[in-house]
Amino acid sequence: LEHITVHYSERDLYSIPFAIVYDMALRLGLIELMADKVVLKRNQIHSFFAQSNERIHHCLYTIWLMRFLPRQAWMQHAIAVMVPFAPLGQWFCLDQIAEYLKTNEITMDNLEKEEAMIQFKQQWIHPLVALGWLELGKDSQSNEWGRWLISLNISNSSQHLQVNREHEVLVQPNFEIIAPLTLSIEYRWELECFAEHVQTDRVSRYVLTKDSLDRAYKNGRTVGDITGYLQKYGKYGIPENVEVTIAQWGKQFEVEGWRKPPFYPKWAATEHIQPFAWPKEATNKGMLSPRFDSDDYEEVTNLPKIEAMYDKLAEIPPIWLKDHREYHISVRKEIITKAIEWKTYIRIRETGQLKTVIPKEIIPNHGSWNVQCLLDGRKTQLSPDDLKSLLLILPGINDGSE
Fold it and tell me: In 3D, which of 56, 66, 317, 7 has the Cα closest to residue 161?
């Protein structure tokens, strides 16, 4: 995370990872900052963690986009195309991102492809990997590939409480606990109360230590709570040596005879949990400064009419904007010329289908002409015969966005 740009006060006291988590918790309404303390909003916490894993990660990714979307326009384009490149779990080559930008003539701040991709990986790809949302790998030619570990396509049904929860873990004699990435958050919540997180890769690894059990004890958990969890959710139960050691440690804690007030609340029964809702009062709260500050932009009080965006709009025939028609070759050239001048696009009808054409340049061709253009995102050339039935599209006027 060292290459992402974050701004917050008291950076000498709080690390970047802490600031990110704290900011997300505030924006989700999971905690509330009072005059002299931070208060857990327990009902909101339970509602949030009772969602499906997909919905939880979607909420977090939404905040990540709002907080850390790069300022560079070309990076924003690259981020926008990352999701459609491949569904969940399917590998895609990172070079596809650069090729997409090149094909669509999106300049990368005059950077060479290699330098641009280095910056993009540092500012966006690597943080996603660190957060467990993306995985990277290389093929035999050292080409770098990525795949999503979370789904960002959320259906309406996934907004409700998760029904089929992954809850099994593997408890090993060496006190290590292996948990799948799909372990539901509510079960992981309790696991992380009494076990130390070691590493997350293809699975999550935890370890039971005396210190981790001491922490659990001080947060209201008993030996019975911990062994009960491991017996119930351990795929093969709990090894005898682990169970005996937990009991011995528990006796030592009881001899010490003190507990702090529980900071780590126990999980509530699912049937009493309300569906999660974004808190309106937390919309502008957070520890991190806004990524885009309104002070960076000049205030515009009088917006021009949309017609003023197109020079001499009144001089073109209105029929160009109304319907797909077949025009004389000279009229087709006039329409293409206007589209290039206004940096807009046209729609053509081809074998009964509508296709989007972004014309770039008209070039001579043996007494006639061709158009260099993007056809549905692909760079190509079209002849006048390919453009018989066309419609000039002016955003804000006849593109359906009025």
Answer: 56
- DSSP E strands, 255-367: 325-326, 345-350, 353-365
Bridge partners (DSSP) listed for residue 66: none
pLDDT range class, residue 6, cuts 50, 70, 90: confident
213 CB-near residues (< 8 Å, 6+ apart): 194, 226, 246, 249, 250, 253
The residue written with tokens 């999503």 in the block is: 148
Neighbours of 146 (CB within 10 A): 22
Residue 389 · residue 382 · CB < 8 Å: no
DSSP label of 169: B
Rounded Cα distance between 240 and 173, Å, is 8
Beta strands, E only, 277-367: 325-326, 345-350, 353-365
Structural contact between residues 92 and 98, judged by C-beta atoms closer than 8 angstroms: no
| Cα–Cα dist 35/33, whole Å | 7
CB of 135 within 8 A of CB of 88? no
Specify the DSSP element, H or E, that contains 200. strand 196-200
The verdict on pTM exceeding 0.85 is no
| 51 Cβ neighbours under 8 A, 6+ residues apart | 59, 158, 159, 160, 161, 162, 185, 276
d(CA 136, CA 138): 7
pLDDT in tens, 253-304: 776 655 555 556 666 545 566 778 877 754 456 788 766 655 566 777 787 8
* Helix 53-68 vs helix 16-27: crossing angle, to nearest 10: 110
pLDDT in tens, 131-185: 888 889 999 998 899 988 887 765 544 444 444 456 889 999 999 999 988 888 7
